[in-house]
Every structure is written in C-alpha cells, then in structure tokens.
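Subject: mismatched residue count in predicted assembly?

I count 700 residues in my input, but I want to confirm that the predicted structure covers every chain. Input:
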Amino acid sequence: MAQRAKTIYDVAQAAGVSIATVSRALCASPQVSKKTAARVQAVAAALGYRPNPIARGLGSGHSDVIAVIVPEITHPYYAELYSAADAEARRNGLTTMLYCLAADEVAVARFGEHMTAYRFMGALFVGGVAEATDEALAGMLTGLAERMPVVAICPPLPGLQCICLYNDLTSSTRQAVRHLHTLGHRRIAFLGGTSVVRTSGARGMGFLEELRTLDLPCDDIYQHEAGYTPEAGQVALMKLLSATPRAQWPTAMVAINDLVALGALRQLRRMGLRVPEDMAVVGCDNQFFSPYTDPPLTTVDLHPAEHARSAIQELLGARVTPVAPFTLMREATLIVRESCGVQLGYRRFA
Amino acid sequence: MAQRAKTIYDVAQAAGVSIATVSRALCASPQVSKKTAARVQAVAAALGYRPNPIARGLGSGHSDVIAVIVPEITHPYYAELYSAADAEARRNGLTTMLYCLAADEVAVARFGEHMTAYRFMGALFVGGVAEATDEALAGMLTGLAERMPVVAICPPLPGLQCICLYNDLTSSTRQAVRHLHTLGHRRIAFLGGTSVVRTSGARGMGFLEELRTLDLPCDDIYQHEAGYTPEAGQVALMKLLSATPRAQWPTAMVAINDLVALGALRQLRRMGLRVPEDMAVVGCDNQFFSPYTDPPLTTVDLHPAEHARSAIQELLGARVTPVAPFTLMREATLIVRESCGVQLGYRRFA
DNA sequence: TGAGAAAATGAAAGCGCTTACAGTTTTTTT
DNA sequence: AAAAAAACTGTAAGCGCTTTCATTTTCTCA
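Triage response: the counts match. Full output below for your records.
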C-alpha cells in the first residue's frame, strides 16, 4: 500500500518552519522572505509534496475550478465546447469540472450540493437545447450568479443577470434559407426540434421569418417534431414526404442540426432521391462528421470553441474585477458544401 | 447576494442537539434513536440544509465520487462510455468526475493532485488508444490501485494489478476479415492506427493473423498510418489506392474504427468507386453515425456501455469487500450493414 | 547605537464534516 | 428495585490547508 501522502506538516517539519510559512512559500505570498521561500520550495519538491486542492479550497474559500454545465456530453456539439473550455482553462492554470444535467434530477441535485461545496471560481453554463422553461433557467442561472461569476452560452434569457455569449440562431436558419433561395429553391421545408413557436425554438423562428420575408410558401409543408437525433430526422423526413403530394414536395430542406440532417440524408437515399439534385439539404452545427456525409453537408458553424475560450477568459477576468453582465452575439457562418448544390451548371464532384 | 449556506451547526442549533447527532441522523447511522433522527431530518429539510460533500470527504477520508479517466471526450466512443458510467453511478448514488488525460501533462499532473485529495471511492480507467507505453500505463494503474479500487477498460497489460474489462480487439478485426472472406473477398486491406506490430495495435494484429489463417495475401497492400480520424482515413485510402496498380486493388477493407471508415467512404465516393460493389468496407466501434453513413456501415460493436456498467458495479462491490483483480473479456459483435454487401444476389436497398 | 518602522514568522482559529471516546440515559436482568 | 447492560448523545480531535493577529526579527535613520 502506498504510504500516506505528504502534508504541509511534513514539509514544515523537514524545513524547520511553521506550516503557515510553508503555506505562504507555496502560494508565492509576499509575506515570506525570498530565502525561506526558496528553501521551503526545495524541501517540498524533495519530499514530493503536492498541496491538496480540496483542503486549500476549504481553507481559503475559493478554488481554481470552473464548473462546466452542459445538457449531455454525448452530443458532439457539447463535447467540442467542453473540450475547448477545458483546454483553455488548463492553459490558464485552472481546472474544469463537468456536469451533465439533462440526465435527470439527481444530477441536478448533485450539482446543487457541489455548487456550494466546491467553491467554484466560476461556472460556465451551456444550454441551447430547450430544457426546462426559460424562466426556471434564468432563475437558476441568476441564483448561481449570486454565488460566483457565471458565463452562459445560450440564447439570451429575459432577466438573466450574467454574461451571455450566444449565436443568433434565428439568423443561422435564416442564412440557410436565404442561401437556398439564392440557389433557386422556392419550396423549402424545416426538419426539427420541438415547437417552432417557442422562444427557444429560435431556429424554427428564423426559418419561418425568412420564408415570409422572401415571400415563400410556408404552409404545413415543414414538419416539426421533438428530438434532435438522426432517428428523428429519418422519421420526420418520411412523414413529411408521405404526407405531401409529390408535386408539392419541397426541393430543399433545412434541418435543425446536423444529426437530424444525417438521418434525413439517409432516408432520402433510401427513397431513391438524390441530394442535392432532387433535394437540397442544409444542416446546422458543422459537426465533425458533416464534411464526410454523402454528399458533404452544407451547414452553419456556430463556433462553439471560440465561445468556450471567450467564456473562460471572462471568468478569468472576473477573478480580479467583478463582471458586469453583458451579452455578446457571435455571427454564425454558413459553410457551403455539396449537399445544397450550386446555382448554375452544377456538377457533382468527381 | 445569497446568504451563506447552512451548515451542520445551524441544523444542530435549530434541532437542539449536537452536531455529532446531526451528522449521525443524516448518515442514517444506527447510533441515533429513530425519534431524534426523524426530528433532525425534518429540521434539516426545513432549513434547506445540504451536507457539504467536500467537508464530508475531508472528515471521513472517503467520498462517493468515482474518477473516470479517458483520453479525450470528443471521441464518441469515450463519450458514450463515460455517459453510461455516469448514469450507472448516479443510479447507485455515486458521482462521477471526468478526467481527459490525452490533452497534456498538465492534465495528468492535475489528476495526480486530485487523486490523493479527492478521496475517490474508486477509479475507472479507460484506455484503448495507444498513449504512453504499456509499462508506464501499467505502472500508473498499479499505483492508482494501491490507493483505491480501480477498474480498467483497456487491453490487459502485463503486470496490471486491477480489474480489467476488455474486448479482444484482435478478434474484432478477425471477425471482420472472416466475414469479408465468407462473402468472397480475397484481397483485403487494413486502414488504420499506428504501427501494426505493437502490442496495443491489437486490431492490426488480428487483421494480419486472420489473413494468414485464411491464406490470404498480406503484402504491403494494407496501409498503416497514425491517427484515428476521418481525415486520416481519407488520406490513407488515397495513398493506398494510388500506390497500388488498379489490378491489385483490394476489394474490401477493414478500418481501425468508424471514424477512419467514414473518411474512407467519402474518399471512395470522390474517386467514383461504389460501396460495396467496388469496395466493401468494415469499420469498428459501431458509433452513433455508423447506421447513417452511405451505405450504412458494417462494423463491430464493443459494447462500451455494458463495460461501463460492469465497471461501476465492480467498484460498488469493492466498497464492501476489497476487489481481487481479474480480467474479463467481452465478445465483440459484428454488426452487418450494407457497406460490405451480401454474398449472393446482392441488391442495394431501395 | 538605540528607538521606531518594516518585514518575517508563528500560534491559532477556522472551513464543514466524521468519528473515536466518554458521559448520560434508558432498558434489561435478577 | 438495584445493578449491569444497552442505547443514545455530547465532547473534542482530527482531515489539510489558509489567514488573521500577535510576536519576533531585521532594518532604517537619527
């Protein structure tokens, strides 16, 4: 069995000073002479002493860990975001702790306990998918923000009192629709997520708005269903096409995310339809597999990693001066690939 | 500002008992009378008291958190594994803490600190991709195992002193090759990961072995390269085909994982080759996107979620009786989809 | 060179909890 | 009903560190 880990007492004894001095020496406190500091550090190193961050937090009341809260980590978007946040935190000497709250209430309760116990130096909340009501969410975040600096990467919530980084999701689908319109499409469908009417269904809203702006038909030709998975995409597409007389089929569709688009692509293939010739498809999120679908998927990049980095930087800044809440919108970028074809003289690659 | 969180002292005072009694009441200790226990619990609930797990760990010397160590979370395989482990842990009243160690040494160092500080009740180590040498890995794990129960989900390492759950990766590629052979393929290529020779390159080994067993040609026709990404797959395939005279092209290929297979599928399409008619493709890992590639990818399922659940259960068991190290191999399952075609009278779906 | 200021150090009180150990009630036994 | 046993509760010592405050040492300048 490995022997008990060295404590500050071991170092103090070995160096012939008090534990207070050791503590100061190791925290680069200005209250200790250069000479002793150096000696203590040497002794600590020699002993292989590693300060215990838990005890440190208990004692000082604050730690260097940032809580990162996402709905679930199996979703590539959140994984990418978390990973970027963790990397940026590490680059700045901080640690990250992951919480996946979509799982169930137990997970949420657990986070509640940790929230007060772990003395987080800040929290990064990542939302986006509609979980809980907007009000409940805003309330929870505001509560969190009373205890520590908080940055939220999610659509701005009314009454939200913390830094909020977001993408105009309305604009992301709007861009997609506009692009399709430019290419000559007039009947465009929407595939995805819960109700289009809710505030959080921004992607659906943007879709509708742009349809109206461009004076395109916006009957029930678009199919809305719950879920953000390939399965959902597949089912939705099937329903959409079987419910519509062939003559009125859309010539293009915008999916709420790349996962749904992936399912749709598959189903289109099953039904013998060609993409983009028979149906143009645009996704959203620019996930790792999007360049490799067949054909490669036109999509919208929300730059999650950049959001993550900004968030960590803000939290870092909040350590010195309290953060004044603000809202920053990052422009989404349309990534044109082959799934939506091109306007004139389009020819499939190879 | 939210007021200070309630402590055990607040509860003690409100209930008119000592903090020791509160502690016992809240830990369902048999040393407290039913009556006081109930009263204390009521008071605690009324006050909205939440025990501080950190302090609890400091005091008792152990916590209910399991450290889960993976190389990186953006890889869908690890995300799925972690997610399953977390869910199972939660179902059993435990918490999970994620460490991604492939990032850099800072991350490793951080884990080292936490390892002694957080009083983990156990650790779940997930390896698989070759990082560090086998010896270093075995050493680290054995060290870990001296401090807490450890379950490793990775190929069995020589000298490893902990529970080890794994898949016979040799067999996974072997199954793939055998299947392709059954379908009539004779020239089969391998696309993937670092050197085939290393122990950890089990997938490559299995591939080679089966080739020999079946008396199939195993020249340098298989291309080995570093990396497990779609990009790598794309590049590898390109190299493979351009380096080989068309007459000797393989008719089938086994990719080291689904990501690589995804890249290969794309490149095949680019080159105008049909799958599976011109080239059968088999992947490995059965990831979420595999049923949605075009054509759907034949692959091998390693049942990561089941591994994760077993691991948590073992750790749970280790809490009562120390775990005797053992090794458990879980059979990988070949998932046949359309990317490898069928033997006779094959016709593409729809 | 000595008084006062500045710098360095140490003692000790937390941080919020668990857990021997000791002390106090009950309960059981005879 | 008194003594012994059992059940409960409280006291206090940690767990490993930070930090305030008091104390000691060193430095500064007359």
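Chain B touches chain A through 59 residues (CB under 8 Å). Marking this ticket as 'not a bug'.
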